[in-house]
Amino acid sequence: MKPFTIDTTNGICAALFIFLGGFFALQSLDLEIGTAFRMGPGYFPLVLAIVLILLGAVILVEAVRFESEPIGHVAWRGMLFILPAPIFFGLTVRGLGFLPSIFLTALIASFASGRMRPLTALVLSAGLTLFAFLVFSYALGLPFRRFGPWLQF
Amino acid sequence: MELLDNLALGFSTASSLANLGFCLIGVLLGTLIGVLPGIGATATIAMLLPITFQIGDPVSSLIMLAGIYYGAQYGGSTTAILINMPGESSSAVTAIDGYQMAKNGRAGAALAIAAIGSFFAGTVSTFLVAVFAPPLTAIALEFGAAEYFSLMIVGLVSSVALAHGSIVKALAMVVLGLLLGIVGTDIYTGTPRFTLGIREYADGLNFVAVAVGVFGVAEILRNLENEHERSVMIRSVSGLMPTRDDFRRMAAPIVRGTIIGSALGILPGGGAILAAFASYTVEKRISKNPGEFGKGAVEGVAGPESANNAGAQTSFIPMLTLGIPANPVMALMIGAMIIQGIVPGPNVAIEQPALFWGIIASMWIGNLMLIILNLPLIGLWVKLLTIPYYVLFPIIMAFCSIGVYSVNTNIYDLYAVAFFGLLGYLLTKLRCEPAPLLLGFVLGPLLEENLRRAMILARGDPTTFVTRPISAGLLFIAFAVLVIVFLPAVKKKREEVFVEEN
């Protein structure tokens, strides 16, 4: 008898869909479901969420029966520096102001690559900030404060 | 002639100095980003989308967006030919013979053939759009809620059929997209749904944030997986002019490619990709020396490139007339229209004729600009290819952040970018295609609205979808497509096609 194995890629995939389906289903139950005639806000999402869970279950069955491609290399360093960049921009654009915030955002994103040298990153971010100032702030006139209240003394 | 009047209106709209300028900027920017290796047309448009919102006038902004689209596509072909790195799967076919031509020292000729083929295909298919859009609009005006619902089901099912890899996963992606699409306030009762109590998400998740995250950020992460030096072996491109022999050999494939592309482009779900493959197969089959294919055959560049561009153009037909996106790029276009306050659908042609015909005319102008601009500028694009990737993505991340924030000045949109970047990357790693998700996201609210309206009109009787003839016909098509892709023989063939592509 074959030992019981689950394919990693499809196993995680199934778990993700079932989890997301479960999340939407639970949230829908708090809403008014209504009837097929007069659907409430929860009707359509609940149906979709149940379908998503079922599709996840089908993928789970496939994961037990077949092997698929391995997940492969994951860009951990990339995720560590790329994903925080827009979050950082969101947290600081009002407080620090547009220019300091975009400088630091570019600097954070720069370190996602192992090839980037610190000096290059600084020069690149500075150049980018200048460009952003000229194009977005000056020429297009986006209504962002260039320097925010955190920097006023 | 009504057609001529309409086209005249379109050309006078599109050729105003401002609109010509926006079209030019769009084509240039699109090529600029599209030529960067590893970044496909969809990602390019997603990243440049916020810029177009800075233009107040919806006509100009959509014309610029269309320009970006053509530019991005042409940029993708350039990288495919010069460094064998297609940004989008539709130019993967071009890479097969185009790169071989470049290796034989004929890069210039290959690029010129691609440009000429695209221009011819663009001219013919623009005309087709102008001919077929109005009657389709007239039909679409007769559609009720039930028909719209069924039509959207056809679109979603087709996107599943044309996605890579597992069909079940693609279906799950569509459903997840639909669910994400209905996050926000319920239109009938005003109840907030799935917002996790965050007031900033009451208007729904920002479409630009989702697109930038799922396509842009996820693509950057994928490129960061294995950083290796790109070898650009072509430092300068010379000999742009194809020889007389080239012209003789490319004429017929261009015509055939245009026909195949125009027909398949209308199919929802990414007909342009299918068109390029179909054209390549046809050319290889009817060629007198099929052995040349894969070693730098002129026909293998001319046919697929024309098919690809014709398909890209005719995919505007369902978008403009029905408001149904045929592929992720059209989904982005619809998103842009909604943000500009235009409700996509058959009414656009009637209420905003200048917009409707202006976009159609700008398609042709955009193609003309591409050929005039890009042939002389090829040297510049080749230089761009040598910029190391690690310099590019901080720039891209900074511009994406500014762009997304500038749409609504909502900082929660930036958090959504990070979240959807992570989700998009995770799903790609799990072999799930992002295109069906985006299509679902755009159609989610429309699908729900029409379903609910149809059910109210039918007093809760679900048979309304099969007793109304048009709706029944559409549902039958959707059902047939699903059955066909699950047939064992088709399933096997489909896997072969996509394996060949990678």
Automatic annotation (TrEMBL), chain A:
Regions that span the bilayer: 12-31, 43-62, 74-91, 121-141
Entry annotated with the keyword Cytoplasm: no
Going by the UniProt record, its keywords in alphabetical order are: Membrane, Transmembrane, Transmembrane helix
Instruction: Report the Pfam families cross-referenced here.
Output: TctB
| Source domain of life | Bacteria
Query: What region holds the DUF1468 domain?
Result: 13-144
* Protein name, entry field: Tripartite tricarboxylate transporter TctB family protein
TrEMBL record, chain B:
InterPro entries documented for this protein: DUF112_TM (IPR002823)
Going by the UniProt record, its keywords in alphabetical order are: Membrane, Transmembrane, Transmembrane helix
**Can you give the residue ranges of the DUF112 domain?**
20-439
* Name of a matching Pfam family: TctA
Q: Which residues cross the membrane?
A: 109-133, 145-163, 170-189, 201-221, 254-280, 324-343, 355-381, 387-405, 412-428, 470-490
Reply yes or no: does the keyword Kinase apply.
Answer: no
Put simply, this protein is called TctA family transporter
From what organism does this protein derive?
Mesorhizobium muleiense
